[in-house]
Write a structure and sequence with these properties.
The complex is a heterodimer. Chain A is of the alpha+beta class. In chain A, 22% of the residues lie in helices and 31% in strands. Chain A has three domains: 146 residues, Probable tRNA modification gtpase trme, domain 1 (Gyrase A, domain 2), CATH 3.30.1360; 97 residues, Alpha-Beta Plaits (2-Layer Sandwich); 74 residues, Aminomethyltransferase beta-barrel domains (Elongation Factor Tu (Ef-tu), domain 3), CATH 2.40.30. In chain A, the strands form four sheets. Chain A has a six-stranded mixed sheet. Chain A has a six-stranded antiparallel beta barrel with strand order 14-17-16-15-18-19. In chain A, helix 2 packs across helix 7. Chain B is of the alpha+beta class. Chain B has a single domain, classed as RNA polymerase II/Efflux pump adaptor protein, barrel-sandwich hybrid domain (OB fold (Dihydrolipoamide Acetyltransferase, E2P), Beta Barrel). The chains are: A alpha+beta, B alpha+beta. The interface between A and B is medium-sized, with 22 and 16 residues.
């Protein structure tokens, strides 16, 4: 049952720490990473929802995109760096305030999603962006960004000389208060750099579990010390890839390569919010013709959430209508530890996508009842700053 | 009474002409938290190596194969409400199904406890 692999797996700066903590290491996106620790996926999942979970996400693709030549005018430099990245993506980057992060989509000319990514305006450096892409697509993403930046900006990859940690859960903020006290003033979807160890850490208030939390970029030489410092807090436990996946599924968040791929449009994926208003009005993003038409007239399929009765419906399971006709396919599915039942996401024609609609899923050839429900399956608990009165 | 094992981590505890089948402690540890068990139907006739049941963890589904040929005589209905019994007590309360053994000779092809222990070292 042990997974073995002949491929030459990369390791993160925390490889030894995972082994020492009893992590069950598996190949993932070309890296050897822990799928779980001895307490198991269910316990790790629940711990993250109740306390704080610490994840090694160093396999992802953090990077910095910086202008070659600065004008000295911060707003003009931000406009210039935004103009480099915006032709590739769906989001309004020009409109970001310093330190603000935006979830965006890298698109192809057919309006399909090449990746989903976080793009942030540097709070410190004019003409600088912090960009984090997915592990599986990072080489292609970076090549695409570099090609677009040629002669204008430089892409600095930070996926080999840094570690990226995610601290997620309701206690994350109280733990961060011990590590970088000023970081707890960050609002949701903002970031800044703070002194820690021998260098600065880059702390983003975001994550992919549906909980309040932080992602922390740390230079490799400080990674183990930061990991240990976080785990020294009794509210923090290390969490593997298994619970990372069940947490994001409960949060209704799509996963690239599963719920998103280069044939799926943002409208089909129910990510219309990632097409910023200004970009929509101008229609200046790749695949705008298809995406705007789908936004206007509706797509032919749309991502829905399903509560499944019985065995979990995994990726690839057929979705059937009440009469048993195949109408779609599950793109992510499994067991939701917080709910104690099976949940799934998949694509169906909009006529079947109404909440409460009764469908079926085919698991090992057997039709099981499923109901279309709103996502997230478990409410998001992102930190929202009270508005100044 | 004797217990035999397959290289796929099923056990069969033989009581007379009946076998009680489940997965080993090693298997439940490897699978992690079990969240769903698809039981065979009573009366189902199985050949050795047939898929008899499916055990699902949070992450994945794993097929459970028949260690020997026979007919399913009883299933552990408690697993429907409490699949975690397999994690808690795989070789007693977490048994999966009972089989009327068609050919006791097939038991000789299975591993004994010592051989299975060697396999999972």
């Amino acid at each position: 049952m042990a997974e073995t692999s002949a491929e030459n797996l990369k390791t993160t700066p925390l490889f030894e720490s995972h082994n020492a903590a009893g992590g069950r290491m598996v190949p993932f996106g070309g890296y050897s990473l822990p799928v779980q620790y001895p307490s198991g996926i269910m316990a790790e999942h629940k711990w993250t929802r109740e306390q704080a979970g610490l994840f090694d996400v160093s396999h992802m693709g953090p990077s910095f995109l910086v202008l070659d030549n600065l004008s000295g005018d911060a707003e003009a430099d931000h406009a210039a760096i935004s103009a480099v990245i915006e032709p590739l993506i769906s989001g309004d980057i020009a409109g970001l305030k310093p330190g603000q992060i935006r979830y965006s989509l890298l698109l192809n000319e057919q309006g399909g999603v090449l990746d989903d990514l976080m793009i942030a305006r540097s709070p410190l450096v004019a003409g600088g962006l912090y960009i984090v892409v997915n592990a599986g697509t990072k080489d292609a993403d970076f090549a695409r960004i570099e090609a677009a930046a040629a002669g204008k900006a430089r892409l600095i990859r930070a996926d080999s000389n840094y570690a990226l940690l995610a601290l997620q859960g309701p206690e994350a903020v109280n733990v961060m208060a011990q590590i970088a006290p000023d970081a707890i003033d960050l609002g949701f979807m903002t970031y800044n750099a703070f002194d820690w160890g021998s260098d600065k850490i880059v702390v983003s208030r975001c994550g992919y579990t549906g909980e309040d939390g932080f992602e922390i970029l740390v230079v490799s030489r400080d990674a183990v010390a930061l990991w240990d410092a976080l785990l020294a807090d009794s509210r923090v436990k290390p969490i593997g890839l298994g619970a990372r996946d069940s947490l994001r599924l409960e949060a209704g968040l799509p996963l690239y390569g599963h719920d998103l791929d280069e044939t799926i449009s943002p409208i089909e994926a129910d990510l219309g919010f990632a097409i910023s208003k200004r970009r929509r009005e101008v229609g200046d993003f790749p695949g705008a013709a298809r995406i705007l038409a789908e936004r206007e007239s509706g797509p032919s399929r749309i991502r829905v959430g399903l509560i499944v009765e019985g065995a979990p419906a995994r990726e690839g399971a057929e979705i059937l209508d009440a009469s048993g006709n195949a109408i779609g396919v599950v793109t992510s599915g499994g067991f939701a530890p917080s709910l104690g039942k099976a949940i799934a996401m998949g694509f169906v024609p909009p006529a079947h996508a109404t909440h409460g609609n009764k469908l079926q899923v085919s698991v090992r050839g057997r039709a099981q009842p499923a109901e279309v429900v709103p996502t997230p399956f478990v409410p998001h608990r992102y930190f929202r700053k009270a508005k100044a009165s | 009474m004797t217990t035999k094992f397959t290289p796929d981590h099923e056990y069969i505890r033989v009581e007379g002409s009946t076998g009680i089948v489940g997965i080993t402690n090693y298997a439940q540890e490897a699978l992690g938290d079990i969240v769903f068990v698809e039981l065979p139907s009573v009366g189902k006739v199985l050949k050795k190596g047939d898929e008899a049941a499916v055990v699902e963890s949070v992450k994945a589904a794993s097929e459970i194969y028949a260690p020997v040929a026979g007919t399913v005589t009883e299933v552990n209905d408690a697993l429907s409400g409490e699949p975690g019994l397999i994690n808690a007590d795989p070789e007693a309360g977490g048994w999966i199904y009972k089989i009327a053994i068609a050919d006791a000779g097939e038991l000789d092809d299975l591993l004994d406890a010592a051989a299975y222990a060697d396999l999972t070292k």
